[in-house]
Amino acid sequence: MPLGRARAPFCHSDWIYEIKWDGFRALAYVEDGVCQFVSRNGNVFKSFPDLTSGLPRELQAGVAVLDGEIVCLDSDGKSQFEELLYRPGEARFQAFDLLLCDGDDMRYSPLVERKSRLRAIHSAARRLAPVFRPRRM
Fold first, then answer.
1. 98 exposed, middle or buried (CB, 10 Å; 0-12, 13-18, 19+)?
2. Closest C-alpha among 73, 72, 71, 65 to residue 35
3. Which of the following is catalytic: 20, 46, 78, 115?
4. Has residue 121 been placed in a domain?
């Protein structure tokens, strides 16, 4: 669909909207307390050890595959790509879809159901969209 400008935001009950995060798109594979982030090209992200160790503790699921972006956010919640790129900021995982959860293949479930289950397995489920960040121990 071609990009265009509009005077007012489009709104319709048949549509779901996502914020465009400026980060690294990744699948998060979580199993038995271990997490691995994989890029669209199949490369494993190895430079986010705090996030990799923290994500499994934040989930109320033993096995999960989440789709999302690794981001750095400022105090207003806006994505800061340069902080992510050069690593001075705190990395977080912005999950927006749940593909697998404790043996349930969610890929063929309606998106609304997948998002609901994603919020249910995140320990801070009151958020609009789960943002995973490592807890300080």
1. buried
2. 65
3. 20
4. yes
User: Mean pLDDT in the chain?
Assistant: 86
Higher-confidence position of 106 and 133:
106
* Domain carrying residue 92: 24-132
Number of domains in the chain: 1
Query: How far apart, in whole angstroms, are the C-alpha atoms of residue 4 and residue 99?
Result: 31
Question: Is residue 137 domain-resident?
Answer: no
* CATH code at position 76: 3.30.470.30
At residue 120, what is the residue type?
Answer: A
Q: What is the DSSP letter of 43?
A: P
Tokens standing for 91? 């990395």
Q: Is 20 a catalytic residue?
A: yes
Quote the CA–CA distance of 69 and 21 in Å, as a whole number: 7
- Would you state the pLDDT for residue 131? 56
Q: Is 96 a domain residue?
A: yes
